[in-house]
Write a structure and sequence with these properties.
The chain has 15 helices and no strands. It is mainly α. It has one domain. The longest helix is centred in the last third of the chain and has 29 residues. The termini are far apart.
């Protein structure tokens, strides 16, 4: 039962990686489940469910500021697509999971006061990223205050867990993408009219995210979006859901991979793709259909 409940825990891309991955691994170990299999849920949801709110993904924040999009715009144009992709992803993942392996439950001591510290921080982040956004409080202020509180309460600053490698890889891919941007001709792709143009934009965005990481792919597309703002949702959905397929497609999945390494449960790029492609391709197909239906009804 906790598998289905766990799938619904994800609400923020950052929470999925920072909080839920170690939590899922520990829950799986205590219940005799496969910790790697269950830990895939936060990684997959970090892409599938990251289009619901402006603060759900850094790509959303960039486009929201650029095109002056509100939370209601995301709930109308992107949330239904994300919900459809998440449902399909869950159905496919549950079939891949199959029966739970016979793993002996681990008896780990409960850390005293963990919930007393963790629950208020999670509530603060959720309120800060939603209500705070409506009040004009920047997301970095909310996250910074939460981090400061954790440092004070735990009296620990884990510098060794800073994902330097993942951030460096994303930065390198971004530099490469920006250098190649003038030759890509994205303004022509985004200018193709009709449903075919929406599908082309969605596909190019998803492919670009997997090639060079989703944030660089979005930054490359921004000049073209200025000319064709109506294609914002196709671009956002493509760069957000596309990274389901490949681990370097988003910083969140790179962070997830680094977190799994830290937990002594390494997941190679090939192993991630074996699950990500089978979950992501059906989810992307359904997401495109729902997006086209929303565009058709205006």
């Amino acid at each position: 039962m906790f598998r289905l409940d766990g799938w619904n825990l994800e609400r923020s891309q950052s929470l999925a990686v920072v909080l839920l991955t170690p939590l899922y691994v520990r829950i799986a170990s205590r219940h005799g489940e496969d910790p790697v299999l269950l830990a895939f849920l936060p990684a997959l949801l970090a892409s599938l469910a990251s289009s619901v709110l402006p603060v759900s993904n850094l790509t959303n924040l960039v486009v929201a500021r650029r095109l002056d999009l509100a939370t209601t715009d995301f709930l109308t144009h992107a949330a239904p697509v994300a919900l459809a992709a998440t449902i399909v992803g869950w159905l496919v993942w549950s079939r891949l999971a199959g029966p739970a392996p016979a793993v002996r439950p681990a008896h780990e001591p409960v850390v005293p006061g963990a919930l007393a510290i963790g629950v208020p921080v999670v509530v603060w982040l959720l309120l800060g990223f939603t209500v705070g956004d409506q009040l004009g409080v920047p997301a970095w202020v909310v996250a910074g205050l939460a981090l400061a509180a954790l440092v004070v309460l735990t009296r620990r600053l884990p510098w060794e867990h800073v994902p330097v490698g993942a951030a460096a890889l994303a930065l390198s891919l971004g530099t490469l993408a920006l250098g190649a941007a003038p030759a890509l001709g994205l303004d022509r792709a985004l200018g193709v009219p009709g449903a075919g143009g929406e599908a082309l934009t969605f596909g190019v965005a998803a492919l670009g995210a997997n090639l060079v990481n989703n944030l660089p792919a979005l930054l490359v597309a921004l000049p073209a979006l200025d000319l064709h703002p109506g294609r914002a949702w196709a671009v956002l959905l493509g760069v957000n859901i596309g990274p389901t397929l490949w681990v370097t497609g988003a910083l969140s999945t790179l962070l997830w991979q680094a977190t799994m390494d830290r937990l002594d449960l390494p997941v190679s790029n090939r192993r991630y793709a074996a699950v990500g492609v089978r979950v992501g391709l059906p989810a992307l197909a359904v997401a495109l259909v729902v997006h086209l239906a929303l565009v058709a009804v205006g």
